[in-house]
Amino acid sequence: MSARTIWSIVAAAGLLACLASAAPAADAKDAKKDSPAKKTPRPPRPPVVPGPCYLDPNEAGPDYAVQGEYVGTAGSDKIGVQVVAMGKGQFTAVIYQGGLPGDGYTRDKKKVSIQGATKDGKTVFEGAADKYEAVIEAGKLTGRTDTGEKIAARRIVRKSPTLGAKCPSGGTVLFDGTNTDAWINARVDKRGLLEIDAETKADLPDCTLHLEFLLPFKPETRGQDRGNSGVYLQRRYEIQLLDSFGLEGKTGECGAMYMKVAPLVNMCYPPLTWQTFDIEFEAAKWEDGKKVKDMSLTVRHNGVVVQDGLHLKGPTGVGKKESPEGGPLWLQAHKNPVFVRNIWLVPKK
């Protein structure tokens, strides 16, 4: 059987898994926000739009070749552009003043979203309200701003600085593609990748934790149906996994503590790009059955801090109730084919 045939089978299996996401799948009731102490409103759920799902860039079609990140200038100013595929040749381009998120753009700077479509080999964008114009052809983006300044940018592929990081001396390898001895309910595909929906046999200690994840390309789906999963620490605290490329970076998006704390920066790369979480975790502390210290964590998403020394007063999402007992690392499945690799931890002394 040829390699292309094998990938086609894998992609078809992913398509079936993604089509299953058409059924609404809501998380548990939202927990209360830590400060101030009131409920976080759940964002309105968009209509479910069944559509194709791709697990291999070589099978993802022409829209995937246009989608991605671009860097360049608008006049004399640096800009970054994230082009998000919306399905069937339709796109949203988000133009960031100062550069891409994590590389020059901050939330206080200007950003503009414009809509575009591919026709005759070109992807053309026009912003009716903002009067921006842009064209993408052969990996280059050109256009003009609302004030007439020339835009010139090229497509790039960023890689996390911790991608492929090796487990340090004294650490524990949880998954390296060779076996699943550390896991319950583990499934490994032909690529040697661990499919989401597994938990460790051992409880998660206070530790430095590294993992790498791959989100599917689902251009015609939206919101929580687009690559949704979660990394649960002690099966209590969820760091959201989601294709949030080009979005705002809200409490239900990638790098957030689910429905509690939004990421400081939306560092989500395009789907089918390997991404990293590097997590510093300390469990809540208990004395005589009473909690005396809240859990704390710092999360780096693709090398950039998105949660900084955060303390949570309780679990998130469908996390189990806090107690002096420990809990495993749980990779939550949410009807999306998400894959992970290179998982290791170093216990804190």
CATH arch. level architecture of the largest domain: Sandwich
Rg to the nearest angstrom?
21 Å
Number of domains: 2
Give the number of helices.
2
Helix content: under 10%
Strand order of the largest sheet: 1-2-3-6-7-8-9-10
Provide an overview of this structure.
This protein has helices at 3-19, 62-66; strands at residues 68-74, 77-87, 90-97, 100-101, 104-105, 111-119, 122-126, 133-137, 140-144, 150-156, 172-175, 183-184, 194-195, 198-203, 207-214, 229-233, 237-241, 275-282, 285-287, 290-293, 295-301, 304-312, 328-333, 339-347. By secondary structure, it is mainly beta. Strand 2 (77-87) and strand 3 form a beta hairpin. It is globular, with a radius of gyration of 21 Å. An 8-stranded antiparallel β-barrel has the order 1-2-3-6-7-8-9-10. Strands 11, 13, 15, 18, 21, 22 and 24 form a 7-stranded antiparallel β-sheet that branches. A 5-stranded antiparallel β-sheet has the order 12-14-23-16-17, with no helix packed on it. The N and C termini lie far apart (50 Å). It folds into 2 domains: 62-156, Beta Barrel (Lipocalin), CATH 2.40.128.120; 172-347, Jelly Rolls (Sandwich). The longest helix has 17 residues, at 3-19. It contains 2 helices and 24 strands.
Annotation keywords:
349 residues; 2 helices; mainly beta; Lipocalin; 40% strand; Jelly Rolls; seven-stranded antiparallel β-sheet; eight-stranded antiparallel β-barrel; 2 domains; 24 strands; globular
Topology:
Elements: H1 3-19, H2 62-66, E1 68-74, E2 77-87, E3 90-97, E4 100-101, E5 104-105, E6 111-119, E7 122-126, E8 133-137, E9 140-144, E10 150-156, E11 172-175, E12 183-184, E13 194-195, E14 198-203, E15 207-214, E16 229-233, E17 237-241, E18 275-282, E19 285-287, E20 290-293, E21 295-301, E22 304-312, E23 328-333, E24 339-347
Parallel strand pairs: 4-5
Antiparallel strand pairs: 1-2, 1-10, 2-3, 3-6, 6-7, 7-8, 8-9, 9-10, 11-24, 12-14, 13-24, 14-23, 15-18, 15-24, 16-17, 16-23, 18-21, 19-20, 21-22
